[in-house]
Design a protein that fits this description.
5-stranded antiparallel β-sheet; 37% helix; binds zinc ion; 448 residues; alpha+beta
Length: 448
Protein backbone atom coordinates (compact mmCIF):
# COMPACT_ATOMS: atom_id res chain seq x y z
CA UNK A 1 0.00 0.00 0.00
CA UNK A 2 2.84 2.29 0.91
CA UNK A 3 4.46 1.50 -2.48
CA UNK A 4 1.26 2.44 -4.36
CA UNK A 5 1.14 5.75 -2.50
CA UNK A 6 4.72 6.46 -3.40
CA UNK A 7 4.09 5.68 -7.09
CA UNK A 8 0.97 7.85 -7.15
CA UNK A 9 3.00 10.68 -5.69
CA UNK A 10 5.74 10.14 -8.28
CA UNK A 11 3.25 10.17 -11.19
CA UNK A 12 1.59 13.29 -9.79
CA UNK A 13 4.98 14.95 -9.56
CA UNK A 14 5.81 14.02 -13.15
CA UNK A 15 2.45 15.36 -14.39
CA UNK A 16 3.06 18.57 -12.46
CA UNK A 17 6.51 18.91 -14.00
CA UNK A 18 5.11 18.29 -17.47
CA UNK A 19 2.38 20.88 -16.96
CA UNK A 20 4.85 23.41 -15.60
CA UNK A 21 7.17 22.76 -18.56
CA UNK A 22 4.30 23.16 -21.02
CA UNK A 23 3.22 26.44 -19.44
CA UNK A 24 6.81 27.75 -19.48
CA UNK A 25 7.17 26.72 -23.13
CA UNK A 26 3.89 28.42 -24.10
CA UNK A 27 4.86 31.64 -22.36
CA UNK A 28 8.32 31.58 -23.97
CA UNK A 29 6.73 30.79 -27.37
CA UNK A 30 4.36 33.71 -27.06
CA UNK A 31 7.17 36.05 -26.06
CA UNK A 32 9.97 34.82 -28.31
CA UNK A 33 8.22 32.88 -31.10
CA UNK A 34 8.80 35.64 -33.61
CA UNK A 35 12.48 35.80 -32.70
CA UNK A 36 12.88 32.01 -33.09
CA UNK A 37 11.07 32.06 -36.43
CA UNK A 38 13.25 34.88 -37.73
CA UNK A 39 16.48 33.22 -36.62
CA UNK A 40 18.52 32.38 -39.74
CA UNK A 41 18.74 28.69 -38.69
CA UNK A 42 14.95 28.29 -39.21
CA UNK A 43 14.73 26.07 -42.26
CA UNK A 44 11.19 27.27 -43.05
CA UNK A 45 12.33 30.87 -43.57
CA UNK A 46 16.00 30.52 -44.50
CA UNK A 47 18.11 28.33 -46.77
CA UNK A 48 21.82 28.34 -45.93
CA UNK A 49 21.39 31.65 -44.10
CA UNK A 50 19.53 33.26 -47.05
CA UNK A 51 15.93 34.36 -46.55
CA UNK A 52 13.82 31.97 -48.59
CA UNK A 53 10.25 33.09 -48.03
CA UNK A 54 8.23 36.08 -49.16
CA UNK A 55 8.14 38.37 -52.18
CA UNK A 56 8.80 42.08 -52.74
CA UNK A 57 6.53 43.85 -55.26
CA UNK A 58 5.97 47.45 -56.33
CA UNK A 59 2.67 49.27 -55.67
CA UNK A 60 1.25 47.97 -58.96
CA UNK A 61 2.16 44.34 -58.29
CA UNK A 62 5.34 44.19 -60.40
CA UNK A 63 7.46 41.42 -58.87
CA UNK A 64 10.83 42.82 -57.76
CA UNK A 65 12.17 39.90 -55.72
CA UNK A 66 11.09 36.33 -54.97
CA UNK A 67 12.91 35.00 -51.91
CA UNK A 68 12.08 31.31 -52.52
CA UNK A 69 13.93 31.30 -55.84
CA UNK A 70 16.29 34.23 -55.10
CA UNK A 71 15.17 35.77 -58.41
CA UNK A 72 14.88 39.52 -59.02
CA UNK A 73 12.70 41.45 -61.52
CA UNK A 74 12.87 40.12 -65.08
CA UNK A 75 13.84 43.50 -66.52
CA UNK A 76 17.52 44.35 -65.99
CA UNK A 77 17.00 48.12 -65.91
CA UNK A 78 14.28 47.76 -63.26
CA UNK A 79 16.69 45.69 -61.18
CA UNK A 80 19.28 48.48 -61.34
CA UNK A 81 16.68 51.19 -60.64
CA UNK A 82 15.22 49.42 -57.59
CA UNK A 83 18.43 47.92 -56.14
CA UNK A 84 18.61 50.16 -53.05
CA UNK A 85 14.91 49.75 -52.26
CA UNK A 86 14.86 45.97 -52.77
CA UNK A 87 18.38 44.93 -51.72
CA UNK A 88 21.41 42.99 -52.96
CA UNK A 89 22.01 39.22 -52.63
CA UNK A 90 24.42 39.60 -49.68
CA UNK A 91 22.35 42.26 -47.86
CA UNK A 92 25.20 44.75 -47.98
CA UNK A 93 22.55 47.45 -48.44
CA UNK A 94 21.33 47.39 -44.86
CA UNK A 95 18.39 49.78 -45.40
CA UNK A 96 16.87 47.71 -48.23
CA UNK A 97 13.54 45.88 -47.89
CA UNK A 98 15.36 42.52 -48.07
CA UNK A 99 17.62 43.41 -45.18
CA UNK A 100 15.55 45.76 -43.03
CA UNK A 101 11.99 44.52 -43.63
CA UNK A 102 12.76 40.77 -43.52
CA UNK A 103 10.29 40.14 -40.70
CA UNK A 104 7.50 41.35 -43.03
CA UNK A 105 8.70 38.91 -45.69
CA UNK A 106 8.86 35.98 -43.25
CA UNK A 107 5.32 36.87 -42.19
CA UNK A 108 5.48 35.07 -38.84
CA UNK A 109 2.09 34.26 -37.39
CA UNK A 110 1.44 33.08 -33.82
CA UNK A 111 -0.76 30.16 -34.92
CA UNK A 112 0.82 29.05 -38.18
CA UNK A 113 4.42 30.11 -37.48
CA UNK A 114 6.38 30.37 -40.72
CA UNK A 115 4.80 27.40 -42.49
CA UNK A 116 2.67 29.51 -44.86
CA UNK A 117 5.63 30.51 -47.09
CA UNK A 118 6.04 34.14 -46.11
CA UNK A 119 4.25 37.30 -47.13
CA UNK A 120 3.96 39.46 -50.22
CA UNK A 121 5.33 42.88 -49.33
CA UNK A 122 4.03 45.63 -51.64
CA UNK A 123 6.27 48.69 -51.57
CA UNK A 124 4.83 52.16 -52.18
CA UNK A 125 7.23 52.54 -55.13
CA UNK A 126 6.19 52.72 -58.76
CA UNK A 127 9.01 50.71 -60.37
CA UNK A 128 8.50 52.42 -63.75
CA UNK A 129 8.97 55.83 -62.12
CA UNK A 130 12.21 54.52 -60.63
CA UNK A 131 13.26 53.49 -64.13
CA UNK A 132 12.62 57.00 -65.47
CA UNK A 133 14.64 58.54 -62.62
CA UNK A 134 17.47 56.08 -63.17
CA UNK A 135 17.56 56.85 -66.90
CA UNK A 136 17.45 60.61 -66.23
CA UNK A 137 20.45 60.36 -63.89
CA UNK A 138 22.26 58.92 -66.93
CA UNK A 139 25.14 57.25 -65.13
CA UNK A 140 25.80 60.14 -62.72
CA UNK A 141 25.89 59.59 -58.96
CA UNK A 142 23.00 60.95 -56.95
CA UNK A 143 19.49 60.33 -55.74
CA UNK A 144 15.92 61.02 -56.85
CA UNK A 145 12.83 60.77 -54.67
CA UNK A 146 9.16 61.67 -55.09
CA UNK A 147 6.49 61.21 -52.45
CA UNK A 148 2.85 61.94 -51.85
CA UNK A 149 2.90 64.33 -48.92
CA UNK A 150 -0.72 63.54 -48.01
CA UNK A 151 -0.43 59.74 -47.80
CA UNK A 152 3.33 59.46 -47.20
CA UNK A 153 3.78 57.00 -50.10
CA UNK A 154 7.27 57.19 -51.61
CA UNK A 155 6.62 56.65 -55.33
CA UNK A 156 10.22 56.98 -56.49
CA UNK A 157 13.45 56.31 -54.60
CA UNK A 158 16.59 55.82 -56.67
CA UNK A 159 20.20 55.94 -55.55
CA UNK A 160 23.22 55.73 -57.85
CA UNK A 161 25.76 54.26 -58.46
CA UNK A 162 23.93 50.96 -58.66
CA UNK A 163 24.48 47.48 -60.09
CA UNK A 164 22.52 44.49 -61.29
CA UNK A 165 21.74 42.29 -58.24
CA UNK A 166 21.17 39.34 -60.57
CA UNK A 167 24.80 39.63 -61.65
CA UNK A 168 26.70 41.49 -58.92
CA UNK A 169 30.11 42.81 -59.98
CA UNK A 170 33.37 42.42 -58.05
CA UNK A 171 33.70 45.75 -56.24
CA UNK A 172 37.01 46.82 -54.70
CA UNK A 173 37.14 49.44 -51.94
CA UNK A 174 38.98 52.02 -54.05
CA UNK A 175 36.72 51.70 -57.10
CA UNK A 176 35.62 55.31 -57.79
CA UNK A 177 32.75 54.23 -60.02
CA UNK A 178 31.13 52.31 -57.17
CA UNK A 179 31.91 54.83 -54.40
CA UNK A 180 29.34 54.38 -51.61
CA UNK A 181 27.35 51.91 -53.73
CA UNK A 182 25.95 50.07 -50.70
CA UNK A 183 24.53 53.30 -49.26
CA UNK A 184 21.07 54.42 -50.21
CA UNK A 185 21.99 58.08 -50.70
CA UNK A 186 18.38 59.13 -50.11
CA UNK A 187 18.21 57.55 -46.66
CA UNK A 188 21.75 57.18 -45.40
CA UNK A 189 23.83 60.12 -46.69
CA UNK A 190 24.11 63.82 -45.91
CA UNK A 191 25.46 66.37 -48.39
CA UNK A 192 26.31 70.09 -48.49
CA UNK A 193 22.95 71.65 -49.42
CA UNK A 194 24.15 74.81 -51.15
CA UNK A 195 21.35 77.21 -52.03
CA UNK A 196 18.45 74.90 -51.15
CA UNK A 197 19.35 75.86 -47.57
CA UNK A 198 18.34 79.46 -48.40
CA UNK A 199 14.77 78.26 -47.75
CA UNK A 200 15.73 77.84 -44.08
CA UNK A 201 17.34 81.29 -43.95
CA UNK A 202 14.27 82.69 -45.76
CA UNK A 203 11.86 81.11 -43.23
CA UNK A 204 13.82 82.61 -40.33
CA UNK A 205 13.97 85.99 -42.10
CA UNK A 206 10.23 86.24 -42.81
CA UNK A 207 9.48 85.41 -39.15
CA UNK A 208 12.12 87.60 -37.53
CA UNK A 209 12.75 90.66 -39.72
CA UNK A 210 9.62 92.86 -39.63
CA UNK A 211 10.59 95.24 -42.45
CA UNK A 212 11.90 92.47 -44.75
CA UNK A 213 9.34 93.11 -47.48
CA UNK A 214 10.02 96.85 -47.53
CA UNK A 215 13.73 96.43 -48.05
CA UNK A 216 15.60 96.86 -51.31
CA UNK A 217 18.89 94.98 -51.64
CA UNK A 218 21.78 95.77 -53.97
CA UNK A 219 24.22 93.08 -55.11
CA UNK A 220 27.51 94.21 -56.64
CA UNK A 221 28.70 90.61 -57.11
CA UNK A 222 30.27 90.22 -53.68
CA UNK A 223 29.90 91.32 -50.08
CA UNK A 224 32.58 91.67 -47.38
CA UNK A 225 31.76 90.24 -43.98
CA UNK A 226 34.44 90.80 -41.33
CA UNK A 227 37.18 90.90 -43.94
CA UNK A 228 36.04 87.77 -45.79
CA UNK A 229 34.43 87.99 -49.22
CA UNK A 230 31.19 86.17 -50.09
CA UNK A 231 30.61 86.13 -53.81
CA UNK A 232 27.79 85.74 -56.33
CA UNK A 233 28.35 84.39 -59.87
CA UNK A 234 27.63 87.93 -61.13
CA UNK A 235 26.23 91.25 -59.83
CA UNK A 236 22.49 90.76 -59.30
CA UNK A 237 21.84 94.52 -58.99
CA UNK A 238 18.78 95.88 -57.18
CA UNK A 239 16.10 93.52 -55.90
CA UNK A 240 13.48 92.89 -53.24
CA UNK A 241 13.44 89.80 -51.00
CA UNK A 242 11.36 87.74 -53.46
CA UNK A 243 13.81 88.45 -56.29
CA UNK A 244 16.73 87.67 -53.97
CA UNK A 245 15.44 84.09 -53.54
CA UNK A 246 14.58 83.77 -57.24
CA UNK A 247 18.11 84.73 -58.32
CA UNK A 248 19.59 83.03 -55.23
CA UNK A 249 21.78 85.99 -54.24
CA UNK A 250 24.53 84.81 -51.87
CA UNK A 251 25.24 88.36 -50.72
CA UNK A 252 21.67 89.00 -49.53
CA UNK A 253 21.27 85.65 -47.76
CA UNK A 254 24.72 85.77 -46.13
CA UNK A 255 23.94 89.22 -44.69
CA UNK A 256 20.49 88.07 -43.50
CA UNK A 257 22.11 85.05 -41.82
CA UNK A 258 24.51 87.32 -39.89
CA UNK A 259 21.62 89.61 -38.94
CA UNK A 260 19.53 86.65 -37.71
CA UNK A 261 22.38 85.02 -35.78
CA UNK A 262 23.64 81.43 -35.68
CA UNK A 263 21.30 80.27 -32.91
CA UNK A 264 18.19 81.44 -34.76
CA UNK A 265 19.32 79.77 -38.01
CA UNK A 266 20.06 76.56 -36.17
CA UNK A 267 16.63 76.58 -34.52
CA UNK A 268 15.03 76.90 -37.99
CA UNK A 269 17.13 74.03 -39.37
CA UNK A 270 15.99 72.06 -36.35
CA UNK A 271 12.28 72.90 -36.65
CA UNK A 272 12.57 72.09 -40.38
CA UNK A 273 13.41 68.52 -39.33
CA UNK A 274 16.79 68.77 -41.08
CA UNK A 275 18.72 67.85 -37.93
CA UNK A 276 16.51 64.89 -36.95
CA UNK A 277 16.78 61.25 -37.90
CA UNK A 278 13.59 60.40 -39.76
CA UNK A 279 12.37 56.83 -40.09
CA UNK A 280 10.74 55.40 -43.20
CA UNK A 281 8.54 52.39 -42.36
CA UNK A 282 10.87 51.73 -39.44
CA UNK A 283 14.07 52.11 -41.51
CA UNK A 284 16.27 54.82 -39.96
CA UNK A 285 17.56 57.71 -42.10
CA UNK A 286 20.63 59.86 -41.46
CA UNK A 287 20.38 63.34 -39.98
CA UNK A 288 21.96 66.53 -41.27
CA UNK A 289 24.05 69.02 -39.32
CA UNK A 290 24.37 72.75 -38.74
CA UNK A 291 27.27 74.28 -36.82
CA UNK A 292 26.57 77.58 -35.08
CA UNK A 293 29.27 80.07 -36.08
CA UNK A 294 29.69 83.82 -36.57
CA UNK A 295 30.97 86.35 -39.11
CA UNK A 296 31.68 85.13 -42.62
CA UNK A 297 31.34 81.47 -41.59
CA UNK A 298 27.78 82.21 -40.48
CA UNK A 299 27.27 84.05 -43.78
CA UNK A 300 28.39 80.99 -45.70
CA UNK A 301 26.25 78.64 -43.59
CA UNK A 302 23.23 80.87 -44.34
CA UNK A 303 23.71 80.04 -48.03
CA UNK A 304 24.15 76.31 -47.40
CA UNK A 305 27.93 76.10 -47.39
CA UNK A 306 30.48 76.08 -44.49
CA UNK A 307 29.71 72.89 -42.48
CA UNK A 308 26.01 72.55 -43.41
CA UNK A 309 24.89 69.02 -44.30
CA UNK A 310 21.43 67.87 -45.34
CA UNK A 311 19.96 64.38 -45.71
CA UNK A 312 17.78 64.06 -48.86
CA UNK A 313 14.95 62.26 -47.01
CA UNK A 314 14.63 65.06 -44.44
CA UNK A 315 14.73 67.65 -47.23
CA UNK A 316 11.94 65.81 -49.06
CA UNK A 317 9.82 65.81 -45.90
CA UNK A 318 10.43 69.56 -45.47
CA UNK A 319 9.19 70.11 -49.05
CA UNK A 320 6.04 68.14 -48.18
CA UNK A 321 5.37 70.30 -45.12
CA UNK A 322 5.85 73.57 -47.03
CA UNK A 323 3.31 72.28 -49.57
CA UNK A 324 1.00 71.13 -46.77
CA UNK A 325 0.89 74.49 -44.91
CA UNK A 326 3.32 73.27 -42.25
CA UNK A 327 2.28 69.62 -41.94
CA UNK A 328 2.86 66.53 -44.08
CA UNK A 329 2.72 62.75 -43.83
CA UNK A 330 5.94 61.04 -42.85
CA UNK A 331 7.39 59.21 -45.89
CA UNK A 332 6.74 55.46 -45.92
CA UNK A 333 7.82 52.53 -48.04
CA UNK A 334 5.34 49.77 -47.19
CA UNK A 335 2.06 50.00 -49.09
CA UNK A 336 0.50 46.73 -47.93
CA UNK A 337 1.21 43.14 -47.01
CA UNK A 338 -0.66 39.97 -47.97
CA UNK A 339 -0.27 36.23 -47.53
CA UNK A 340 1.09 34.35 -50.56
CA UNK A 341 -2.53 33.51 -51.47
CA UNK A 342 -3.43 37.21 -51.45
CA UNK A 343 -5.23 37.56 -48.13
CA UNK A 344 -4.60 40.98 -46.62
CA UNK A 345 -2.34 40.85 -43.57
CA UNK A 346 -2.30 44.49 -42.67
CA UNK A 347 -4.95 46.98 -41.84
CA UNK A 348 -4.40 50.38 -43.38
CA UNK A 349 -2.48 52.47 -40.95
CA UNK A 350 -2.43 56.22 -41.52
CA UNK A 351 1.08 57.57 -41.87
CA UNK A 352 2.26 59.69 -38.98
CA UNK A 353 2.38 63.40 -39.68
CA UNK A 354 5.30 65.77 -39.29
CA UNK A 355 5.06 69.49 -38.62
CA UNK A 356 7.68 72.11 -39.34
CA UNK A 357 7.04 75.86 -39.74
CA UNK A 358 3.90 77.95 -39.31
CA UNK A 359 1.17 78.01 -41.93
CA UNK A 360 1.79 81.67 -42.81
CA UNK A 361 5.55 81.10 -43.24
CA UNK A 362 4.93 78.07 -45.45
CA UNK A 363 2.41 80.01 -47.57
CA UNK A 364 4.94 82.80 -48.16
CA UNK A 365 7.65 80.28 -49.09
CA UNK A 366 5.29 78.44 -51.42
CA UNK A 367 4.53 81.66 -53.32
CA UNK A 368 8.22 82.49 -53.52
CA UNK A 369 9.09 78.97 -54.73
CA UNK A 370 6.45 79.25 -57.45
CA UNK A 371 7.94 82.62 -58.40
CA UNK A 372 11.41 80.99 -58.58
CA UNK A 373 10.14 78.79 -61.42
CA UNK A 374 8.15 81.38 -63.34
CA UNK A 375 10.60 84.29 -62.91
CA UNK A 376 13.96 82.53 -62.88
CA UNK A 377 14.21 78.81 -63.80
CA UNK A 378 11.65 78.89 -66.63
CA UNK A 379 8.17 77.31 -66.65
CA UNK A 380 8.98 75.90 -70.12
CA UNK A 381 11.12 73.24 -68.42
CA UNK A 382 8.08 71.71 -66.71
CA UNK A 383 5.30 71.92 -69.30
CA UNK A 384 1.99 72.66 -67.57
CA UNK A 385 3.08 71.43 -64.13
CA UNK A 386 2.69 74.04 -61.36
CA UNK A 387 6.17 73.40 -59.94
CA UNK A 388 7.31 75.26 -56.82
CA UNK A 389 11.04 74.77 -56.32
CA UNK A 390 14.45 75.85 -55.11
CA UNK A 391 17.64 74.93 -56.90
CA UNK A 392 21.04 74.51 -55.31
CA UNK A 393 24.57 74.40 -56.64
CA UNK A 394 26.73 73.29 -53.73
CA UNK A 395 30.49 73.78 -53.83
CA UNK A 396 32.18 70.57 -52.67
CA UNK A 397 35.90 71.19 -53.18
CA UNK A 398 38.54 72.88 -55.30
CA UNK A 399 38.66 71.47 -58.81
CA UNK A 400 35.42 69.48 -58.37
CA UNK A 401 32.19 70.33 -60.13
CA UNK A 402 29.51 71.40 -57.60
CA UNK A 403 26.64 69.16 -56.51
CA UNK A 404 23.39 69.97 -58.26
CA UNK A 405 20.14 70.09 -56.22
CA UNK A 406 16.52 70.66 -57.15
CA UNK A 407 13.72 70.26 -54.60
CA UNK A 408 10.12 71.33 -54.25
CA UNK A 409 6.54 70.21 -54.90
CA UNK A 410 3.56 70.58 -57.19
CA UNK A 411 1.12 73.34 -56.23
CA UNK A 412 -1.95 71.25 -57.00
CA UNK A 413 -4.11 69.45 -54.40
CA UNK A 414 -4.95 66.74 -56.99
CA UNK A 415 -1.29 65.77 -57.36
CA UNK A 416 0.19 66.28 -53.88
CA UNK A 417 3.76 65.36 -54.82
CA UNK A 418 7.00 66.62 -53.29
CA UNK A 419 10.40 65.82 -54.77
CA UNK A 420 14.13 66.04 -54.23
CA UNK A 421 16.89 65.48 -56.79
CA UNK A 422 20.63 65.48 -56.18
CA UNK A 423 23.16 65.00 -58.96
CA UNK A 424 26.65 64.74 -57.48
CA UNK A 425 29.13 66.96 -59.31
CA UNK A 426 26.30 67.75 -61.70
CA UNK A 427 27.04 71.48 -62.04
CA UNK A 428 24.14 73.91 -62.26
CA UNK A 429 21.18 73.02 -60.02
CA UNK A 430 18.47 73.94 -62.50
CA UNK A 431 20.09 72.41 -65.57
CA UNK A 432 21.22 69.08 -64.12
CA UNK A 433 18.92 68.22 -61.21
CA UNK A 434 16.04 70.37 -62.54
CA UNK A 435 15.78 68.40 -65.77
CA UNK A 436 15.82 65.07 -63.88
CA UNK A 437 12.97 66.41 -61.71
CA UNK A 438 11.04 67.52 -64.81
CA UNK A 439 11.23 64.05 -66.42
CA UNK A 440 10.16 62.23 -63.25
CA UNK A 441 7.34 64.64 -62.34
CA UNK A 442 5.97 64.55 -65.86
CA UNK A 443 5.69 60.77 -65.68
CA UNK A 444 4.35 60.78 -62.11
CA UNK A 445 1.48 63.07 -63.16
CA UNK A 446 0.68 61.99 -66.73
CA UNK A 447 1.98 58.42 -66.67
CA UNK A 448 4.14 59.19 -69.72
ZN1 LIG B 1 24.03 88.48 -55.63
Amino acid sequence: MKQVKQRTFLVALLVLLLLTGTVIFCVKYAVSGREWAEFPANGHAYTEGRLSSGQILDRNGVLLYDAASGQYAEDGELRMATLHAVGDPDNNISTSAKAALDSHLIGYNFLTGTTTGGHRLYLTLDAELNRTAYEALAGRKGTVAVYNYQTGDILCMVSTPTFDPADPPEISDDDEGYEGVYLNRFLSSAFPPGSVFKLVTAAAAVDHIPDLWDRTFTCSGSVDIEGDRITCPYAHGQMDFRDALACSCNGVFAQLAVELGGDTLRSYAESAGLLSEHTVSGIPAASGSFEVSSGSQLGWSGVGQFNDLVNPCSLLTLMGTIAGDGTAAQPRLIARETSMSGISRTTDVDAESISTWSKSTCLLLRNMMRNNVTASYGQYRFGDLPVCAKSGTAEVGVGEAPHSWFCGFLDDPDTPLAFVVLVENGGSGVDAAGSVAAAVLQQAVTGE
